[in-house]
From TrEMBL:
Domain Hydantoinase A/oxoprolinase: 56-299
Highest rank taxon of the organism: Bacteria
Stated name of the protein: H4MPT-linked C1 transfer pathway protein
Example of a GO MF term: hydrolase activity
């Protein structure tokens, strides 16, 4: 009988779980605010998956500034998973493309730190086993731009530091990036609003009155997005006309798109070189993450329309629940393909 494996993606702002059989769940969790509660939060998350035979883990939460070093973060996260594993085997994905046991993960912490991009790219490679692929994964906080050659991750960087320097990791997402990032000296250098408010006001993302994980703690609705953006120009929701905040929102989104356009464009020469070594000349773009809508918009720009032969959507392939927890589903699937 095939094993049921529960994948976990432990981030700084969200916890995600998915089984190789297709069940998935995601919950917000501010790890940087309450690291001591991680084990409790994980226990609540995995309780509905009591039938899982083992746990496969990937992470990005070790970067949280509640941990003095990445080593401390990795060890804390691995220990928290072990505490709630109920004696089930635990494996941790590494950027070497293999799973490590918990002792190995703690020892070789830089190989498992922020390795969820590598797990996702390895999984995505199964859809494009021949040719050149660029995975564009836009999340709430960051964007991963991952070259894949004949189904295998072909990133030049392995760590966050190297990947940021090489343009493979871009610190912008569709939710948590402060609006002031794209406004410079024309607006308040304060955490009054995020890019999520710009996307909300422009109708790119749906409203959620129950979601209060916003800059001011008020609901994620267009009404309150207008209020948060109004403060970026020294106003308030009554004094500032909505036309002004709409204009501000367009400026934010245009600048975010330009940043990502430039980073993708900078990777095109490398993708052309990779094509020379590929087993097939076809060139794919795979889009994923909560910002998949933005990646789709980006790929309508030149020169991307002419460069890529085909675009694949993880949301369309996996459905909304699994795609929302894609790295967790990826490690669960990879572990099932690599039994203990």
């Amino acid at each position: 009988m095939a094993s049921t494996i529960l994948g976990l993606d432990i981030g700084g702002a969200n916890l995600k779980a998915a089984t190789n059989t297709g069940r998935a769940a995601s919950v917000p969790f501010a790890l940087w605010k309450q690291p001591a509660q991680l084990a409790h939060a994980l226990d609540e998350l995995i309780t509905p998956f009591a039938d899982a035979d083992e746990l496969a883990v990937t992470m990005t939460g070790e970067l949280c500034d509640c941990f003095e070093t990445k080593r401390d973060g990795v060890r804390h996260i691995v220990s928290a998973v072990m505490n709630v594993s109920r004696s089930r085997p635990v494996r941790v994905w590494s950027t070497d493309g293999v799973f490590l046991n918990t002792n190995e993960a703690k020892e070789h912490y830089l190989k498992v730190a922020a390795a969820n991009w590598h797990a996702l790219a390895t999984f995505v490679g199964g859809y494009t086993p021949r040719g050149v692929t660029l995975l564009i994964d836009i999340g709430s906080t960051t964007t991963d731009l991952i070259p894949i050659l004949d189904g295998l991750p072909w990133s030049e960087g392995k760590t966050d530091t190297a990947r940021m320097r090489l343009g493979e990791l871009v610190y912008t997402g569709v939710r948590r990036t402060p609006a002031t990032t794209f406004l410079g000296t024309t607006a308040a250098a304060e955490f009054f609003a995020t890019v999520h408010d710009a996307h909300l006001l422009l109708g790119s993302v749906p409203e959620d009155a129950a979601d209060t994980d916003t800059a001011d703690g008020r609901p994620a609705t267009r009404l309150h997005a207008h209020g948060r953006l109004s403060r970026m120009v020294g106003g308030d929701p009554v004094l500032t006309p909505e036309e002004d905040t709409q204009r501000l929102a367009r400026s934010i989104v245009e600048q975010q798109r330009k940043l990502l356009h430039d980073r993708v464009a900078a990777l095109i020469p490398r993708l052309r070189e990779m094509r020379q070594a590929a087993r097939h000349p076809r060139r794919y773009a795979v889009v994923s993450g909560s910002g998949e809508f933005l990646a789709r918009q980006l790929l309508r720009d030149q020169p991307f329309v002419a460069f890529f032969d085909d675009m694949l959507s993880l949301t369309e392939r996996l459905g909304p629940e699994r795609s929302a927890a894609a790295p967790a589903y990826a490690v669960a699937t990879l572990a099932a393909e690599r039994p203990l």
